[in-house]
Fold:
Amino acid sequence: MPFGLKLRRTRRYNVLSKNCFVTRIRLLDSNVIECTLSVESTGQECLEAVAQRLELRETHYFGLWFLSKSQQARWVELEKPLKKQLDKFANEPLLFFGVMFYVPNVSQLQQEATRYQYYLQVKKDVLDGRLRSTLEQGIRLAGLAVQADFGDYSQFESQDFLREYVLFPMDLALEEAVLEELTQKVAQEHKAHRIIMETMCTWVFSSWEFL
Structure:
């Protein structure tokens, strides 16, 4: 850190001084970043700090949430001081960044960075089982995700890398032979199209109603 400043670790926070604290935020790509804030900083200030790192301008679609002491997801009240909310309600001072408001049509999202974060949220919700799909839908979604994450099929001599890539919801119990067959179907789906990021979001938005 600059000037040789050392952090003093407490039970709940990394503390820089009596007036500042450091909190961690898990992003939609699973990376964790740290933000240094004033004890009076609001949730909105923290959200804006995260958005700045992500080069995200359309912040009004996003929010921050944490796990409560009863292990329930709770959205940060953006207009209120963040530290007080974490002290009172949070199980630990770890925040999660995510989509808070969905749009009826992905074309309403003006910024590519916004569409990318929507894609990450949709992908996460599908793999976590929060968005349910038929097996056919799951194969198509997996093919779109592979395209978005890795690019065109023609770049690869082999599709063996797909065996190490999470393609289907975590709670979907599949026998090894069935998983191999579905993985091959995903590879064919990947081969069949060249897309841009918003294709996945557009198709998902037309397939599910978001609560």
